[in-house]
Amino acid sequence: MPPALRVRFAPSPTGYLHIGGARTALMNFLQARRQGGTFVLRMEDTDQGRSTPESVQAILDGLNWLGIDWDEGPGKEGPYAPYFQMQRLDTYRKHADQLIAEGKAYRCYCTKEDLDAQRQVAEKAGGAFKYPGTCRERTEPPAGRNAADAVIRFKMPAGDGSVSFTDKALGTITKTHSDLDDWVMMRADGIPVYNFGCVIDDHLMDITLVARGQEHVNSTFPQLMLYQALGWTPPDFAHLPLILGPDREKLSKRKHPEADVMVHKRNGVMPEALLNFVIRLGWSHGNDEVISREQMLEWFDFSDVGTTSGVWNPEKLLWLNQQWMKQLPVETVVERLLPFMEAKGIQAQGDPRLETLVRTLRERSNTLEDIATTAANVYFRSGITLDEKAATKHLSGESLNLLRKVRETLVALPEWSVEALDGVVKQVSEASSVGMGKVAQPIRVALTGNTTSPGIGETLVLVGRDESLLRIDAALTRG
After folding, report:
1. Of these residues, 253, 344, 393, 405, which one is catalytic?
2. pLDDT at residue number 125
3. N or C: which end of the chain has fewer CB within 10 A?
4. How far apart are CA 53 and CA 458, in angstroms?
5. pLDDT beneath 70, residues of the chain
6. Cα 53–Cα 244–Cα 325 angle in degrees, nearest 5
7. Closest C-alpha among 257, 362, 254, 377 to residue 314
C-alpha cells in the first residue's frame, strides 16, 4: 500500500508572497485535498537578513486571503514540528556530522578569495567553474584555519555515473555525475543551504511529493545524491512551468510589481479571480476559462501540468475579475467593497444603496477599486462637475423643459425606487410625445456630468433623492 500523500509548500519569507509561490501552494493544496492527503506549510527562513516576523506574516496573509489553508505548519503545530528551519539547526548538524563520519561529506576550509581566484582561472580558460576538491581528502585544517571557519561539502561519488528521476510534469531527466561537483551543504555558521535543508526536512516530515518551479530542476540532482548517501527513498517530484512577465522575462518583484500577491488585493482583484488566473498559468482543463475552486478540486492533477512557461496577461486577469464580481453573491462583493470605499473617505457600512451600486457597476467595472472610484466621483458626493460638451448638447432649449417636468414629477413621487423612477421617465416621455432617450439624457448629464451611466432609475437611486434634486436644480440654472 503506498504511503499517504503528504505535500508541502516551503517558501522563503522575504517580504511578500510571490505569484509563482501562490501557484505552487495552490497546486499542492489541490492535490492534497482531492486525494485526502496532508498539506504542510514550512518556512525556509535561513535568509536572516530578510526572514523577519513581518516577512513570515506576509506569507501567511497572502495564503489566508487566497483561502489556501494548511494542515500542519505555523499556527497548526503537528507531529513534525517545528516548521521553521532556523528552529531545526541541531537536526541539520546531526545529519551533517553523520555524513562526515561516513566519509560522504567533508569540511572545506577554502576562503571566498580562494574560490574567486579559481573561478577567474576557469572563466579565462573558457570553462565553467567546478570546485576542484581542494579539501576533499583533508583530515586536519590548514595552518591558520580551524573547523569553526569551514563549510561542509557533500562528497560526490568518484568515477562515472548518472542520476535520473521521472518528473510528473516533465518526464524522465538525467544528469551525469561529471556535471555535478562537491556542493556546499552547510555554511560555517551552521545554517543549511537549500539543497541540504529541504532534503532533511522532506524526509523527516514524510513528504511524499515535492512540487515546485522548474527553476529547481537542477537542484533535484544533488538532492537525489544526498538521498542516496543517507539511504533514504526520495519523494516524487513535479516541476511547474515558469511564470513570465508581459516582457517575457521571469516574473520578479524587482521588475514586475504584479509578482506580489497582495498588490492584487490592494488593486481590488477578487481572490477567486487571482486563483483562477494563476492556476491557468501552467494547467488547463479543456477550454474552460472561469474555473471555481470546486472545479479545481475535481479536475486538478499534476499529470495535466504543462511544460511551457505561462505569460502574465493583465487584461485576462481583469476580465476574469469582472466575471467573478458578476458571479459572486452581491452581499459578498459589497462586503469586500467596503474597505475601498472607506479608503476614499466614504463610510458606507449599512448604506441601502450599496447592493444597487454593486449590481449596477459590476457589469462595467474590472475591479473593486473601479467601483469605489466611480462611487466616490459620482454617487457618494455633493455636487458634480458637468462636461461642457455634454451640457451644451443636453441641457439647453427643449431638453431643459423636459428636465423641469421630470423634477416636478420627482418631487411628488412617494417612492424613490428604480421601478418608480423609471416610470417617471416613461410618464414624461409619453406626456411630451418624445422618445424616452430625449428625457433620459438630460437627467443623466445633470446627475453624472456626462452622457454615460447605468439606467436612469439606478442612477437616481444611487445619487439619492435630495442630492438628485439638488443636481437637477443646478442644471436648470443654465436656462
Report:
1. 253
2. 79
3. N
4. 47
5. 1-2, 479
6. 75
7. 257
